Structures are given as structure tokens and as C-alpha cells.
Amino acid sequence: MTRLKKHLIVAAVIVAGFAAALGSYLLLAPEERNSGGLDVQPAAQAMPVRDNSHRLTRPAQSELTVVEFLDFECEACGAAYPMVEKLREEYGDRVTFIARYFPMPGHRNGELAARTAEAAAQQGKFEQMYTKLFTTQKQWGESQEWKQDVFRGYAKELGLDMARFDAALADPEVAGRVETDQRDGLGLGVRGTPTFFVDGRMIDTPRSYEQFKTRIDDRLSG
């Protein structure tokens, strides 16, 4: 094998590896979105929050709204989860925290996990499933195997009516509910997860609890 041919092979491997990693965090062009996420178009009138958006806190008098577009299989979302939980605990009586679905291309079970959470929501257990999916992410995430049986196990653990759960999981309206969130996200400029909006404005993803806390404190005081 010539030296030039060896260099070309090495370069191809490096490029392929970079492309695979990038695909885990950034959305592909619309015509290329054919795996692991929903092939949808941006909403014409995108909204950070809708009436049916899942609220993780419901303060009597909300002073601020924090929206996260998330993918349950996204490792960065999993890393942000403890930070969001700590903020919810501290500010839940003043700030409305909202979770919206945004399954990413390349994640085999990201869209299925979103439908699982939505199916649980139909039985009043969205927050419980949201917590379960993130706290177990390392057990099922980044797998090329279909994890529906695993998610059904979570539904059983939460005491859901399994006939209703299975029906919801296969319901096109449930898939459409996930798609609505993603369409809004695309229309608002979301290109990766997690992406946060504070009172309707996208912010740079905070790198720490302290940084996010400072941003919230500044908005609450200002």
C-alpha cells in the first residue's frame, strides 16, 4: 500500500468519526433527517411554550419561565439534568420550568423515549417518567438496540395501565405531540440539545449550576 493511500484511509476514518460525533449534537439538514429523530419542518409560528407544554413546576405566581428543549438520550441533557433538578428545588415556587421534546438524529431511542414520556403523561405520570428516563440513561442510551421493552418495564414500575400505555405509544397523535415540540424548536432556531429559553429568549447553555443560578437571579431581580 502506498504512503498516499494510507494517508487517504486515515483521513477518511478521522472525517467519518468527526461526522458521527457531530451528528449526535447538531441537526442534519432537513433532507438528511432520516434516522433517530423526526423528519419535520419548522413551525410557521413557533412558540417556546404552548398550553399543553409539560410544566415541571407550577408556582402560584410565576416570575420567570425556563424552557428546555431536550432529548432523553442526549448525554449533554443527562449531564444537565441534576443542574435543572437543583434549580427546580430552589426556584420552583417562583419559576416555571418546562420540558419540551427534541429527539436528535442519530439517537436510536430518542424519539421512542419521548413517546414513552408522553404516553406516561396521558396517565398523569410525565414527571415520574421524565425522572426515570434521565436517571437510567446510562443503562439504555447510546444503544443501537430498540429499547421498547426496557421502557415498558419503567411504565410497569410506575404503576401505569399497560394496555393504555401500549396504545398511547402506538398512537399517531402521541408521535404528533412530540413532533409539535420539535417543529417549534426548529422554528425557534434550536439545533442541538439541551437548548434553554428564559422568558422566550434562547440563552447560551450554562456550563454550571452557579452560572445558571446567576442568570435566573439577575432576571428575577431586574
Give a verbal description of the structure.
By secondary structure, this protein is α+β, with helices and mostly antiparallel strands. 50% of the residues lie in helices and 10% in strands. It has a single domain, classed as Glutaredoxin, CATH 3.40.30.10.
Keywords:
Glutaredoxin; 5 strands; five-stranded mixed beta sheet; globular; alpha+beta
- Report strand order across the widest sheet: 1-3-2-4-5
Uncertain spans: 1-38
Identify the overall geometry.
Answer: globular
DSSP summary: helix tally:
9
Share of residues in strands:
5-15%
Gist of the model:
By secondary structure, the protein is of the alpha+beta class.
Question: How are the SSEs placed, and which strands pair?
Answer:
Elements (H helix, E strand, L loop, with lengths): L2 H21 L30 E2 L8 E7 L4 H17 L3 E7 L8 H12 L4 H10 L1 H4 L7 H10 L4 H8 L2 H16 L7 E4 L2 E3 L5 H13 L1
Parallel strand pairs: 2-3
Antiparallel strand pairs: 1-3, 2-4, 4-5
Helix pairs in contact: 3-4, 3-6, 3-7, 3-8
